[in-house]
């Protein structure tokens, strides 16, 4: 990837200066732009895209979406004037939107860690996928033969109440294997993987934006634990503390 993903190192950086490396026309007054570095989180991993602005001298654009395409991170922009390769731009994300996204995403991980502490995951419930946008949910393969909604909500809020610290670093799959609670299928083997840790609890592989301390999440509400044939879907929401 030609773009340095600043958001992976620090989810609290709201702006950057970057150089435009490539520009492609998408539609009338719409382009996709490749930058040498970015704070814009691209849609994916169950998290919504960042939005915001790119501004240069006598030029500005609205970033309505950031998305990975063909292995590169593209900023999809609307602008009345075409962006040019080599331009230096100041990028700023919509922080309110990002903060909500990272609180929702972090809440998903707290619930997942709570599921682990309760002894339900990674077995018999094995994490399959998650979505942390408008109607957040986590899907597990398998089921447990009791109603876990209340204990899960209680344990997740207990972890938030302790104001535990999230931390992360990059390491090889081999290193990650030694400490991860579980490994998602199809993790890349060719590059260092970001390992996300919750203080005193454990670690998983993760590439999303994350809060530093759990209290920033607010309160977690488990709205539904839906048990299907061989799947358990945990739906949740958050309310600001
Ligand atoms: Zn995640």
Written overview of the protein:
- With 241 residues, this protein is α+β, with helices and mostly antiparallel strands.
- It has helices spanning 6-9, 95-117, 149-161, 173-179, and strands at residues 4-5, 15-27, 30-35, 37-38, 52-56, 59-69, 72-78, 88-93, 126-131, 137-141, 166-171, 193-198, 202-205, 219-227, 231-239.
- The protein has a six-stranded antiparallel beta barrel with strand order 2-3-7-6-5-8. The protein has a four-stranded antiparallel beta sheet with strand order 9-10-15-14. Strands 11-12-13 form a three-stranded antiparallel beta sheet.
- A hairpin with a 2-residue loop joins strand 2 (15-27) and strand 3 (30-35).
- Helix 2 packs across helix 3.
- The chain is elongated and about 60 Å long.
- The two termini are 38 Å apart.
- 34% of the residues are buried.
- The mean pLDDT is 96.
- The structure holds zinc ion (ZN).
Compose a concise summary of this entry.
The protein is an alpha+beta fold. It has helices spanning 6-9, 95-117, 149-161, 173-179, and strands at residues 4-5, 15-27, 30-35, 37-38, 52-56, 59-69, 72-78, 88-93, 126-131, 137-141, 166-171, 193-198, 202-205, 219-227, 231-239.
């Amino acid at each position: 990837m030609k773009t340095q993903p600043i958001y992976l190192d620090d989810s609290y950086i709201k702006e950057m200066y970057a150089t435009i490396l490539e520009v492609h026309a998408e539609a009338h007054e719409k382009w996709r732009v490749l930058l040498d570095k970015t704070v814009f989180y691209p849609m994916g991993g169950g998290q919504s895209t960042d939005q915001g602005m790119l501004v240069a001298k006598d030029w500005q654009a609205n970033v309505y979406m950031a998305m990975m395409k063909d292995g590169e991170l593209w900023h999809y922009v609307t602008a009345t004037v075409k962006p040019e390769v080599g331009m230096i731009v100041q990028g700023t994300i919509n922080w309110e939107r990002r903060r909500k996204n990272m609180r929702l995403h972090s809440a998903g991980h707290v619930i997942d860690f709570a599921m682990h502490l309760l002894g339900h995951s990674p077995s018999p419930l094995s994490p399959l996928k998650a979505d942390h946008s408008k109607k957040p949910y986590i899907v597990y393969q398998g089921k447990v033969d009791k109603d876990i909604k209340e204990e899960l909500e209680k344990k997740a809020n207990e972890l938030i109440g302790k104001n535990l610290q999230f931390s992360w670093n990059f390491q090889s799959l081999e290193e990650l294997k030694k400490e991860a609670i579980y490994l998602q299928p199809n993790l890349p083997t060719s590059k260092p993987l970001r390992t996300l840790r919750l203080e005193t609890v454990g670690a998983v592989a993760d590439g999303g934006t994350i809060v530093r301390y759990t209290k920033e999440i607010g309160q977690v509400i488990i709205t539904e634990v839906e048990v299907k044939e061989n799947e358990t879907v945990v739906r949740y929401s958050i309310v600001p503390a």
